[in-house]
Amino acid sequence: MKFSYKILLSCIITMAAALGIGGYFFVNNVFEASMEREMEQAADENNILQFAFETAALNIPAKYDLLQNSAVKEIGANLEKRGQGTGRLLRLSDENREILYASEGFVEDTQLLASIEEQTRAYQVIHPDEHYYIQTGAEITALDRTLYLETMRDVTAVYEERTRGFSVYRNLMLLILVVSSVIMFFISTWLTRPIRLLTKATKKMTDGDYSYRAEQVSTDEMGQLTLDFNHMAGVLEENIHQLEAEVQAREDFIAAFSHELKTPLTAVIGYADLLRSRKLDEEKHFLSANYIYTEGKRLEAMSLRLLDIIVTKRGELEPQEIDVEVLFGYLRDMYGEQKKHPFTFQYEPGRICGEVDLLKSVLLNLADNACKASDPGRPIEILGRKREEGYFFAVKDEGVGISEEDCRRITEAFYMVDKSRSRSCNGAGLGLALCSEILKLHGCSLEITSTLGKGSTFAFVIPYRTETDSAGKI
Length: 474
Prior knowledge:
There is one protein chain. The chain has helices at residues 3-58, 69-82, 111-115, 156-191, 193-206, 221-277, 282-314, 324-335, 356-373, 404-409, 419-424, 431-441; strands spanning 88-93, 99-102, 121-126, 133-142, 145-154, 320-323, 343-347, 351-354, 380-386, 390-397, 447-451, 455-463. The radius of gyration is 56 Å and the shape is rod-shaped. Mean pLDDT is 82; it is low at 419-428 and 467-474. By secondary structure, the chain is of the alpha+beta class. 57% of the residues lie in helices and 16% in strands.
């Protein structure tokens, strides 16, 4: 069952119960008030008849010491005659509760008569036929005799009024329930609209449309739920895109790795087969063996780089203070005497915190890439500056440059901007990927600015060591 129908059904049941119970007590309260009024009138009528009987008994000539039964019957007949048209019935009984006179139609039941006591008045509601009566009884003392006077007052109209009241209220309640059901149907439909919109959004997302968002139609709790759902959907969409990107990156990595393995392995197998199957002269034999050696060393370097990347991703950094002079001194030893590319070193003295061998590897890879991207004779500059946030390193070249699209992907494993230039220099596209992982360990990232045909700048900032870092790892 739909939630809106549950709301509608719950409201109808609650309203029906409330109206039914309330109507019952209302009509019954009116009925009881009417019956109380009728009983008071019946008691007053009994008092009047009692007084009239006693007055009539005093007016009888005193022939006897006691009131005779015949006189009682005569007085009863006269009282009944005077009450014709009022629907009143009466009955008179002697001291032994033997009936002396009774109006035609008076019930034969003597239960009330037996319950009448001295100086008390008894009454009951009886239903001998299709009519309802209030039967009232009281004791009368007249001329030294104790008699019992009973009256019956027709109250059928009061019961009929109660029946009509229940009928009218029932019809009115049904009308109210019908009208309120229609109104509640629209209200429940309006209240559950956010739920339907959320359900639609979940179905859309289940079908793969992660960009779909639920419409917010209110500012209450349901509106907040919609906002939270849309936020969750946004996070989910972002995570899915990241997963898809990771999957695509892994596929690209495997494809690139396979391709990088295929080229040298094909050459190694070809030249090895040539050496095995043919007898070559000394020069060709040396060239074939040298090619096999060169490609083997390339495979070895590639495997070591991959291993370094994997270890770096899973490792932690043990911080230690480093004088930047150590890093720049190492680079001068490596490239200072190189004639192919003139190197310039400009740096400010300072101390940083990190792993010296890893930072040497970063700077070495960046300098090596600058050499590969630059034509012979083009200068390469390595800078070091103090900044507020940390120590700034930069490697500048005047090489071929990198496009904006390539700058975004150049730190991916096996990604090469110029594959022919990289392979001719024994590159596999792993150096910058390794640099990126090492810099992540140091709490920074590689920043690349480049212009095609004018050169590139690879820079990073090693953050200064804080007091909290001094107690543990960074």
